[in-house]
Structure formats: C-alpha cells, structure tokens
Amino acid sequence: MGEGRRVERADAARNRRAILEATMALLDEHGAAGVTMDRVAAAAGVGKGTIFHRFGSRSGLLYELIAEGATELMTRVLDGPPPLGPGAPAGDRLLAFFDAMTCLVTDHVELIAAYRAMPPHPRTEEFHAFWAEHISTLLREVRPDLDVETVGALLLSSIGGDLAQQMARAGEVARLRAAVQDMVRSVLNAPR
C-alpha cells in the first residue's frame, strides 16, 4: 500500500454502496424531504453513525451521489467508447454528451431537486469547468463562427432548468431527449 494510497475495506465498500443505493431509492420514492439519516440507515441495514462517519451529514451524502454521477460521466467522456468518448466526429460527440447529460438529470430528478436546494457542491466549479471546456472544444471544431462558450452554456443550462425537471416528473423524458437533440443539431447545422 505504499505511496499513501488508502484501500477501502470490503465491508466499508459494501456499506458505502448500500447507503448510496438506499438513499437513491428513498429519493425516488419519497423525494428529498423523505431522506432522513434514520431512514437511510434502516434501508441500508447500517447504523446511523456509520453514515455520519462516512459522509459527515445528509448534505455530504447527497453530495456524494451528485459527484458519483458527474465523475462517471466525466470518465465516459474522457475514456469511454465513441460517440461519447474519443474517436467520433465532434458533432456526434456533442449529441452523445447532451443525451447522456439529459439522462443523468432526468434519471435522478429528486436528487437534482435536493441538490438545487443545497449550497453548491464543493466540486461544482470543477464539474462545470469540465462540461464547459468539453462543449466549447467540440463546438469550436464544428462551428468556429460561434461564441462557443456562451452557446455551450446556453445549451447546457436548458437541461438543468425547471422545464427539464417538470418534463421528467410528467413522464416526458423521451420528448425532452428528442428536443435536446433537435436543439443541438440546429446549432451544429444552422448557418449563421
């Protein structure tokens, strides 16, 4: 274990996974208000102290879930198979990215709602900078005539807003995904 790397014990890893899965299930079933440390502990089959020791607070637990989804998507963008990962044309990668981001947001509506009501995640700037750079780089390749930073931010903000949340709650995820793809295609293909 040299170089200061800490290896997680198997039981700790199992507990972590059980806690995160229980939290997501409670969010999906009861919304953010229904996620208490007592409920999470009971659903995960662990003591409440285990949750506090591992995550520090309810916010820390929710932050962990947000970070898990964001870092998983970042990994897929950097190292995953095309078209989301490297190796596909820039336009195809943008379409894949926006579809993956739309799914991330709509698959976790209650988590996103809880997150929006909390202070920003400690890694918010890092995540947003990554998305912005990824989108801008790809947009610049396809549409160098655009203000890629602003257009990219506008495209991304459309997924994180109230409309996306409302459509997901109304069971209109397929419609939202199609509309986001249409919007991205219109930016990629429209002459200025």
UniProtKB/TrEMBL annotation:
Q: Does the keyword section mention DNA-binding?
A: yes
Domain HTH tetR-type: where?
Answer: 13-73
Pfam families to which the protein is assigned, alphabetical: TetR_N
Q: Which UniProt keywords apply?
A: DNA-binding
Q: Gene3D superfamilies in the record, alphabetically?
A: Tetracycline Repressor, domain 2
Q: Any idea which residues the entry calls the DNA-binding region?
A: 36-55
A single GO molecular function term of this UniProt record: DNA-binding transcription factor activity
**Keyword DNA-binding listed:** yes
PANTHER family linked? HTH-TYPE TRANSCRIPTIONAL REGULATOR RUTR, POSSIBLE TRANSCRIPTIONAL REGULATORY PROTEIN (PROBABLY TETR-FAMILY)
Q: State what protein this is by name.
A: Helix-turn-helix transcriptional regulator
**Species assigned in the record:** Nocardia coubleae
